[in-house]
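Hi all, a correction to my earlier message: I attached the wrong file for Ligase-associated DNA damage response exonuclease. Here's the right sequence:
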Amino acid sequence: MARKNLLEFTPKGIYCQQADIYIDPWQPVNKAILTHAHGDHARRGSNYYLAHHTSAHVLRLRLGEDINLETIAYNEPIYIHGVKVTLHPAGHIVGSAQIRLEYEGEVWVASGDYKTEPDFISQPFEPVKCHTFITESTFGLPVYQWKPQPQIMNEINQWWEDNQNQDKVSVVFAYSLGKAQRILCNLNHELGKIFVHGAIWNTNEALKKDGLHIPATIRVNRELAKDEYRGGIVIAPPSALATPWLKKFQPYATAAASGWMTLRGAKRRKALDRGFVLSDHADWNGLTSAIDATGAQRVYVTHGYKSAFARYLNERGIEAYEAETLFEGESIDNVPVEGED
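and the right structure:
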């Protein structure tokens, strides 16, 4: 039986005609539902935003204090022109949500970005039964299979301790929203002082207002003497990589936390001393298990290895299509952000 189309991919974004609302639009629209606060999913200029409670302050930090923002809890239904809309945990970052839409018995889920491994700071991923599922495929190849988070965090702590023994400052590059908080919450704070870039400091302050507990850190600033950093660890966004901002920490060792560190050569191309395979996106097993759990008969594959992943799903008997979007997935590159000291 042919399925109804509750969502369509338009030049402005993913659109629900029945509710007259867009999901993560990449152009300004009248009404937008946001899966999370990363810049490729939450963009400025729309007249109204709907998102989860725990992304409220970080959205205002990124989009402006004066945005017209309504927030709801997970599994709290809201009805828009007869379409039932609920948000469900995506496990990607704090406040991230899958968007479930139901209309006349038809159910679609737009997952945004997601990961299935619990990180113990964001609400764990929740599979949602649906007829049609929109999935990312950032790491949609079998080569991408993550080690357990505790193992990676132990590696980061050991690297920090090794650098201390060489009288070096440890500098880890990680997304300001999501990965930076995961690392901060799992560092061994008994090892030494923990410093954060201004962009991460500002993000942390916003997340604290939304109820997230974040351990104490020191903001990098011009007033701190160079000796203050000795033996410490600094968390910075990828935008700070290979910039004069790093000079204040010499001598230092650098590392990046990214799923792309799986690839041989990624660390070398960025002139990093170390790479840690840590991602806020689902790996191959996470993607396939999540889709299986939805029971979806049709899947649209967005950013990432979408051609290969859609082909794999079709070979398994799942009706799958590639979808063009402006979502970017994960990168160890980043645009400059406010708050750089």
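Sorry for the mix-up. Confidence is low (pLDDT under 50) at residues 334-341.
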